[in-house]
Specification:
Blueprint: H1 2-16, E1 19-20, E2 26-32, E3 35-40, E4 46-51, E5 53-59, E6 66-74, E7 77-82, E8 87-97, E9 104-107, E10 111-116, E11 121-125, E12 134-138, E13 141-146, E14 149-154, E15 158-162, E16 166-168, E17 174-180, E18 185-187, E19 198-201, E20 205-208, E21 216-218, E22 223-226, E23 230-235, E24 241-245, E25 249-251, E26 255-260, E27 266-270, E28 273-276, E29 280-285, E30 291-295, E31 308-312, E32 315-320, E33 325-326, E34 331-332, E35 334-339, E36 343-347, E37 350-355, E38 359-364, E39 368-370, E40 374-379, E41 390-400, E42 403-404, E43 410-416, E44 419-424, E45 426-429, E46 432-441, E47 445-455, E48 460-471, E49 475-476, E50 483-487, H2 505-516, H3 535-544
Parallel strand pairs: 1-3, 2-6, 5-7, 6-8, 7-9, 8-10, 8-11, 9-12, 10-13, 11-14, 12-15, 13-16, 14-17, 15-18, 16-19, 17-20, 18-21, 19-22, 20-23, 21-24, 22-25, 23-26, 24-27, 25-28, 26-29, 27-30, 28-31, 29-32, 30-35, 31-36, 32-37, 35-38, 36-39, 37-40, 41-49, 41-50
Antiparallel strand pairs: 2-3, 4-5, 33-34, 41-42, 41-46, 43-44, 43-47, 45-46, 47-48
Length: about 550
């Protein structure tokens, strides 16, 4: 009987103790359905407990960084790592769906290096209605690197949570937040003026959809800094934010694309100041009462006396097509940029296009300082790019009355029949000027696309004579050789060939060249009103100079 009891005790110990093997400084965790195997080097100060596929690792080292290599699949498991020293968590093709809490919980207040192993896909899903803060949670500083893929679903609260900062280092990896009850990525631990509360992105790709809260929230006086990589955020819930910082928010590089479809939601919001110093930002504001960029002035909860926005080099494109919410006691406008304090634009092309009578371009409560390159235009055409399945790209140029348009005052719309399918303003770079039109359709081929030129200064639209055949993923023209569009616009005065509201030598030169080539502008350039274009008209124009 004593021998049998000893054997049972030994078997019980095997169920909770790790298999010891000399593997350097790497602790290996391999999930296999309802079980898990843990392999710990003999020299490592790590203790393990395994209950089915639920693994708890406790490290007692204070001097050595261990690598935790995690692989395998379980639909009823979890991983908890605790200790007092920094570590590396290597996600090496692991899929964990937890039935009791977080999928991975690292209880270590130090630096946690998270490596997404190249060529692997890693999936983390937590249990619904639990007490955990996130499906993947760390109490320390999380630093992501590697070229693998991480898919995360947060069924109780956040998808990814960090008690202090979270950094995505220069890498080619991809993080997909597939859904979250609350925030997609949440940083912050509640310490006032804590410099370790921040979200920093240097590379990689982050995609988020089906998020019930904010996509990226740097809470508790936290900051956001984007230096590289690609952020693609879908803001679909009500009264939430794509990128939200309680303190400063800075874009220095990379690509940020945000779709705001939630009512009264916002693409980018800072409670102190927004700095746009480089990179590219594209925001589509589709939700009713929504905002593209918000400089919010807080007076109680976090940073006081903020709310300013500064444009210092970022290429910003904002499309606004949601409706304003008109209530009896409160009207919430759908707007591209809303600034509670001051807005300063020094550099970088900033374009805000508002479509329809209930969409607005921007509003500044404080001082507004705008340099060349800032354009805010209300378009007469209502257009939503997300109503269509297919798209093609056209790089276009425009001539008005036979001469190159004043591109600072024109936009171009693409149409199928009377339905707007895309809008572009013009960009000048490296000596070339072009408008980039993404044309949408629900038919892969077969539709004929026509074009209209819109004069922003006069609020008039005129037809262009050219057409294109729509082809899904097709390209017409190049920035260096655009697809040429032309229109004849009634000028504000006779002889104003380029439509800039004044007659210059360039107008007379264009008029003369057109006259000598046999052209005739009976209404635009017929200064003496005799029904034909003559030398007398040109002489009269010269006298007007």
């Amino acid at each position: 009987m004593k021998k049998l009891a000893s054997m049972l005790v030994a078997l019980a110990l095997l169920s909770v103790q790790s298999v010891q093997a000399a593997e350097g400084d790497t602790v290996k965790v391999a999930f296999n359905g309802t079980a898990a195997t843990v392999t710990i080097p003999t020299t490592a100060s790590v203790r393990s407990t395994v209950n089915g596929a639920n693994v708890t690792l406790v490290s007692s080292t204070t001097t050595e960084e261990y690598v935790y290599d995690v692989s395998g699949t379980t639909s009823n498991g979890s991983l908890i790592i605790s200790g007092q020293y920094k570590l590396t968590l290597r996600l090496n093709g692991v899929s964990i769906t937890s039935q009791k809490g977080a999928a991975i919980d690292v209880e270590c207040g130090k630096r946690i290096a998270v490596e997404l192993v190249s060529g692997t896909t890693n999936t983390l899903v937590d249990v619904a209605n639990g007490s955990q803060k996130a499906a993947f949670y760390t109490t320390g500083h999380s630093e992501f690197s590697g070229a693998g893929t991480l898919n995360v679903t947060g069924n109780t609260k956040h998808a990814i949570g960090a008690k202090e900062y979270l950094e995505i280092k220069s890498s080619t990896g991809t993080i997909n937040v597939l859904s979250a009850v609350s925030d997609g990525i949440h940083c912050g631990k509640g310490k006032v003026n804590n410099e370790n509360n921040y979200f920093l992105m240097k590379g990689g790709v982050v995609n988020m959809t089906n998020v019930g809260g904010d996509c990226v929230d740097s809470d508790d006086y936290g900051t956001i800094l984007v230096k590289g990589g690609s952020l693609n955020l879908n803001v679909s819930a009500t009264d939430v934010v794509g990128l939200k910082a309680d303190s400063t928010l800075t874009i220095e590089g990379g690509m940020v694309h945000i779709n705001v479809t939630g009512q009264e939601s916002t693409g980018i919001r800072s409670c102190y100041a927004c700095y746009f110093n480089g990179g590219n930002v594209n925001i589509d504001v589709l939700g009713d009462g929504a905002k593209g960029i918000k400089g919010k002035q807080q007076t109680a909860k976090t940073v006081n006396n903020g709310g300013s926005v500064y444009f210092n080099g970022t290429e910003v494109d904002i499309l606004v097509s949601g409706n304003t919410i008109f209530a009896e006691d409160d009207t919430t406008k759908c707007m591209g940029i809303s600034v509670d304090a001051d807005m300063t634009h020094k550099a970088g092309a900033v374009s805000v296009l508002a479509f329809g009578s209930e969409a607005y371009t921007y509003h500044v409560k404080g001082t507004e300082t705008v340099a060349d390159g800032f354009r805010a235009s209300a378009m007469p055409w209502l257009f939503s790019p997300y109503d269509y399945q297919y798209d093609m790209t056209a790089y276009v140029s425009l001539t008005v009355n036979g001469v190159a348009a004043d591109y600072s005052r024109y936009a171009v719309g693409a149409f199928v029949g009377d339905e707007c399918r895309g809008v572009a303003t013009f960009t000048t770079q490296s000596g070339y000027t072009w408008g980039e039109l993404r044309i949408r359709s629900n038919a892969a081929t077969g539709e004929t696309v026509s074009f209209k030129a819109y004069d922003i200064t006069t609020g008039t639209a005129t037809d262009c004579g050219e057409t294109l055949a729509f082809t899904s993923l097709g390209v017409a023209g190049l920035p260096s050789s655009p697809f040429a569009l032309s229109t004849t616009a009634a000028s504000q005065m006779a002889g104003d060939m380029d439509g800039d509201g004044k007659i210059t030598i360039a107008d007379v030169k264009a008029l003369t060249e057109y006259y000598l080539s046999g052209g005739s502008y009976k209404t635009v350039c017929d200064v003496n009103g005799d029904g034909v274009l003559t030398v007398a008209d040109i002489t009269a124009l010269i006298e007007k100079l």
